[in-house]
Amino acid sequence: MNKLIEVKNISYSYDTSRVLENINLDILENDFLAIIGPNGGGKSTLLKLILGLLKIKNGSITKSLKNDLVGYVPQNTNLNTDFPITALEVVLMGHKITKKKLFGYSKEDISCAMNSLKKVDMENFANSKIGDLSGGQRQRVFIARALCTNPKIMLLDEPTASIDVKGQKEIYELLKELNKAMAIVVVSHDISILLNYAKNVAHINKSLVYHHLKNNNNNIVDIDKEHLCEVELLSALGKTEICCNHTHN
What we know:
With about 250 residues, this protein is of the alpha/beta class. The protein is built from seven helices and eleven strands.
């Protein structure tokens, strides 16, 4: 498969605190990559470096696609749920700027936003106030906002945080469906994503260990002496298979 994003020898520090050390990672076309690891391990920092929200200090990140083909759903979106804005208006905020100052959004803009809402099964809530929606419904709206530019890859930072179990499953099923047309990269603490959705896993705790997941019944247990994370534990319990060779960075 084609590489959409290539991360090479990335290291990053906040002041004197090193949070990423020599990270190498390829994100492929149609990949479903879960990025896991402890709080403060550097997961969100890597995502922000890929998006260009942080300036690269050491190493390089190469993209084979334009920035507007990268969709992003940030963690804990800072939208004021008490503000009287509808789901449709939230989605329109993610649209390419074609708005006319005096006449609002064009019919084409609105049609595009409604199509994005339809993709996440939220078109019937287009005129609902964002504060009246459940956590899972709001997250679907934020995903629809990221879909406005027809991205080839979607990056999501903790998309199921503060959502109930039913809502979490609905979000992951939605991402599984979207994965048919684009690559998905999810930063998450939710182990269920490893069992049912992810194709590959990057465990980040300053450095990176990469795991290929396989979907069959022949469970391979290969516990690395220098690294133990959720992937190895699930493999040891017979819940998933990982390939024998771990890629260390």
